[in-house]
Write a structure and sequence with these properties.
By secondary structure, the chain is α/β, with parallel strands linked by helices. α5 packs parallel to α9. Helices cover 36% and strands 24% of the residues.
Length: 265
């Protein structure tokens, strides 16, 4: 059964050893991630399916990382000290592949080192679950449309809600990367409108409108989160839930939205 779900940003600045004094710019996000991790821990999941837009993605297929163990670190961001180990849920990953591969393009790969899209939320989950760490099921989106990601999530849904174990789902997602002229992608006047539109659709459970956003509008925003969020919403589609927006901030030109779902299962 699915016992918890959330959307988490993945700015490395929320990690104290990386953000340092700059953590003050993303304190709302760090507080929200702390809350999400605490509530996830209270739900006691056996495994957490994390949908990350980074790592080994392939344009035409959905990817699952089948490594039996993982290393999570942040060396690429200058943090040579922080490192965690985690256990992969190989049995469920292979089960999902067998269940879906006749209808959906799926790739399995084996990467011991996880990307920061998983690593950032897992930093908080790690500290919130010191007694018993859940397993990780890393899932990576494709370049297919948000609507196709929603449909893929629905294909996963029935099996996950009937699972005798306890499962949590995290969509690791940043919104527009073009909210400031200082960002690498440059500023877009459409970026604030995109982030506001996504927030409103999520808050109002307007899933059909969210997954049907215009492609040019999405591309102009320079986002990395709509597909992970769409996949998450597909997984939750037959479940009665209430979204709670914990925070939104964009101090550095990237939109950080944290959302928690109360599941009425």
């Amino acid at each position: 059964m699915i016992v918890y779900a959330a959307i988490t940003p993945h700015s490395p600045l929320v990690i104290p050893t990386i953000g340092g004094d700059n953590m003050r710019f993303v304190q709302q996000t760090a507080n929200s991630l702390t809350t999400i991790a605490a509530h996830l821990a209270k739900a006691k999941p056996d495994a957490v399916l994390v949908i990350s837009p980074h790592g080994k993605t392939t344009p035409e297929t959905f990817s699952l990382n089948q490594s039996p163990s993982f290393t999570i670190g942040f060396k690429e961001f200058g943090d040579l000290e922080t490192e965690y180990t985690a256990v992969g849920d190989v049995a469920r990953i292979h089960h999902y592949k067998e269940l879906l591969e006749s209808a959906w393009p799926i790739t399995l790969h084996t990467d011991v080192e996880l990307d920061h899209g998983i690593g950032v939320p897992w930093h908080f989950i790690h500290h919130a679950t010191p007694q018993k760490q859940p397993k990780i099921i890393p899932v990576y989106p494709s370049n297919k449309t948000p609507a196709e990601h929603f449909a893929f999530g629905k294909a996963l849904q029935e099996d996950m809600i009937n699972d005798t174990g306890r499962l949590a789902v995290i969509a690791s997602a940043d919104l527009s990367h073009r909210l400031s002229p200082d960002t690498p992608a440059g500023e877009s006047h459409w970026a604030p409108k995109f982030d506001e539109t996504v927030r409103q659709h999520i808050a109002n459970n307007a899933t059909e409108q969210l997954i049907s956003l215009d492609k040019d509008f999405i591309d102009e925003a320079g986002e990395c989160g709509l597909r992970p969020v769409s996949l998450l919403l597909g997984i939750l589609d037959s479940i009665e839930y209430t979204p709670s927006i914990l925070s939104y901030e964009a101090p550095l030109g990237v939109g950080y939205l944290a959302v928690e779902y109360t599941l009425n299962t």
